[in-house]
Amino acid sequence: MVRVIPPEERVCERCGRRDVWDEAERTWVIADEDGEKAVGNPHCLHEWDINGTYNPFEE
């Protein structure tokens, strides 16, 4: 049986913004780092590090 494992974290390759998946809200939220939001550049067109090398399938 194959199981789909969605990503739980993503990082913008341009500005460093880090998001985590909030299962309760069922959406991405900005991660906290040292008590502050890791917002990166608010004007960035984020390019997330989840690409063709990410394999969401587990056997």
Short overview:
The protein is an all-beta fold and 59 residues long. The protein contains no helices and seven strands.
Provide a descriptive summary of the structure in words.
With 59 residues, this protein is mostly beta strands. The chain has one domain. 0% of the residues lie in helices and 34% in strands. It has a 3-stranded antiparallel β-sheet with strand order 2-3-4, with no helix packed on it. A two-stranded antiparallel ribbon has the order 1-7. A two-stranded antiparallel ribbon has the order 5-6. A hairpin with a 4-residue loop joins strand 3 and strand 4. It is globular and about 40 Å long. The N and C termini lie close together (6 Å). The mean pLDDT is 87.
Helices, strands, pairings?
Blueprint (H helix, E strand, L loop, with lengths): L2 E2 L4 E3 L6 E5 L4 E4 L1 E2 L2 E2 L19 E2 L1
Antiparallel strand pairs: 1-7, 2-3, 3-4, 5-6
Characteristics of this structure?
3-stranded antiparallel sheet, two-stranded antiparallel sheet, 7 strands, 0% helix
Shape: globular
| Count of separate structural domains | 1
Elements, N to C (H/E): EEEEEEE
Number of strands: 7
Strand order within the widest beta sheet: 2-3-4
Uncertain spans: none
Count of DSSP H/I helices:
0
Largest sheet: 3 strands, antiparallel
Measured distance between first and last alpha carbons? 6 Å
Radius of gyration: 13 Å
The secondary structure category is mainly beta
Mean pLDDT: 87
Give the fraction of residues assigned to helices.
under 10%
% residues in beta strands: 25-35%
